[in-house]
Structures are given as structure tokens and as C-alpha cells.
Design brief:
Blueprint lengths: L3 H14 L16 H5 L23 H5 L7 E6 L4 H11 L2 H22 L5 E4 L4 H7 L3 H13 L7 E3 L11 H8 L3 E3 L7 E9 L3 H12 L4 E9 L7
Parallel strand pairs: 1-6, 2-5, 5-6
Antiparallel strand pairs: 3-4
Length: 240
């Protein structure tokens, strides 16, 4: 199996040899052909609070009705399904630069459009942090890359306010309750957030546990509000 460094090298070579190809079907296009772009699992009907995919007519999911999260709203592009799930994994685990550029651009443009249409504004953009050992092994924090690109496009200040102070096992495959237990005391705030309207950026929201724990921490430190921006939301049948 290739090491992360070898995988990144192979991807960089492939990018130079096969430029301007659709990321999904490989046809000459940049970076996604119209049929593939239209066929992505765009999130259309979802919970107005946590972006969980819902059927027509429902505005809030049962969990948000019963126990509203600490964040106000989640702005999300896609359901975490093929082929966007595969592209996010290429960005997250293989340092795929074309995938990164496409995902950064889509998220940044979506948030920029939302700000323009809604009249909303934020005082700072934050990224869900990763532990230093994980950043060392992977070479980057994908949420940080998304947040920095969004900050540049939307002309919002980025702040390195959050830190992961305790190593916690991977959240993948855990239930909501297990994720909450796994995340307790994991994060810390390194600078004041009092009176600030914050936009927290992550790659994928699964059960919303990470976003909620961090939002609770920010609100406890007197932030005015916290909203979430992410690439994809995991459907209900994949979170239990």
C-alpha cells in the first residue's frame, strides 16, 4: 500500500499528465462537466437547523426539535453520497489537489452567495481543528484549507481560535452518543470570541456532534452566535 507521501506524489504526477479533466467522468473539461455537476447529490430538502436530509414538508428533524444544537444554522452543499463522497475522501486522505480546488471553490461560492442574498455577515471564520499528530501524519487539516479559501473568497477574517488539545479516536463509525463521549474536553479556545458572530467550517457533518460540542464551547465563551458551513451531510440511515 502506498504511503501518504507516495500517494501525494503519484497524484501530483497524474495532475500534470492529465490536466483539465472532469473529476467525475474523466472527459476533457474543467473541473466538472455539466452532466456530472448536475448529477451530484445536491442537498435540497433538509433540516433548517442541522441540514439533515429530510422528506418534503418537514422543516426540522426530530433531534433538533427535541434538543436544538448550540449552532444556529448549517449551510451545506451535498448529501454525503457517491460520487461526492469519493471526491471528499480523495481530498481528505490523498491530498488530491484538483479535488481540493473544486471543493474549496464550490463551498466558498455558495457561502458568498448566501451572504449576498441573506444580508448576513460574520465577524470571523474558524476551522474545526485537528490534533497536531494527525496534522503531522496527514500533512494538513482539510477543514483549515476549506476555511482559509472561504475566508479569502468572502473577505472574512480567519482566526486560529480553536485547538484540539486531546487525541480522540476517529469519529468514523461511531453513534451520536459515542461521538459525544469521544469529544468531551477535546477542544480549547485560545483567543477571545466574546461578542462575535462566527462561521465554523468542517468537511462533512455526520451526527453534528463535533459541530455542536465546539459551538457549545464558543457560546460558553460569550460568542454571539455560531453557524456551520460544510461540504456534505450524512443521511440519517448512515449516522445510526
Amino acid at each position: 500500500m502506498p504511503t501518504p507521501i507516495t500517494s501525494r506524489l503519484l497524484l501530483n504526477i497524474a495532475e500534470k499528465c492529465f490536466p483539465d479533466q472532469c473529476l467525475f467522468c474523466g472527459k476533457p473539461d474543467e473541473p466538472a462537466c455539466s452532466p456530472c455537476l448536475a448529477g451530484l447529490p445536491w442537498l435540497e430538502h433538509c433540516c433548517q437547523r442541522c441540514a439533515l436530509p429530510l422528506g418534503h414538508g418537514a422543516e426540522l428533524c426530530p433531534h433538533c426539535l427535541k434538543a436544538p444544537p448550540a449552532f444556529r444554522h448549517c449551510l451545506c452543499l451535498w448529501r454525503y453520497e457517491f460520487p461526492i463522497s469519493t471526491l471528499i475522501q480523495r481530498f481528505k486522505y490523498q491530498a488530491d489537489r484538483p479535488a481540493r480546488r473544486f471543493l474549496e471553490t464550490q463551498l466558498s461560492r455558495t457561502v458568498d452567495m448566501y451572504l449576498e442574498q441573506s444580508g448576513e455577515t460574520f465577524d470571523a471564520v474558524l476551522a474545526v481543528p485537528s490534533h497536531p499528530l494527525k496534522r503531522f501524519w496527514r500533512g494538513y487539516n482539510q477543514s483549515y484549507l476549506l476555511a482559509k479559501a472561504l475566508s479569502r473568497t468572502c473577505q472574512l477574517p480567519y482566526r486560529s481560535t480553536l485547538a484540539k488539545r486531546r487525541w480522540s479516536r476517529s469519529q468514523q463509525g461511531l453513534s451520536r452518543k459515542q461521538r459525544l463521549n469521544n469529544l468531551k474536553t477535546s477542544f480549547q479556545i485560545r483567543s477571545t470570541v466574546a461578542g462575535l458572530k462566527l462561521l465554523l467550517v468542517d468537511d462533512v457533518m455526520t451526527t453534528a456532534s463535533t459541530a455542536n460540542v465546539i459551538s457549545q464551547l464558543l457560546m460558553e465563551h460569550d460568542a454571539t452566535s455560531v453557524d456551520i458551513a460544510c461540504l456534505a451531510r450524512t443521511p440519517q440511515h448512515m449516522t445510526s
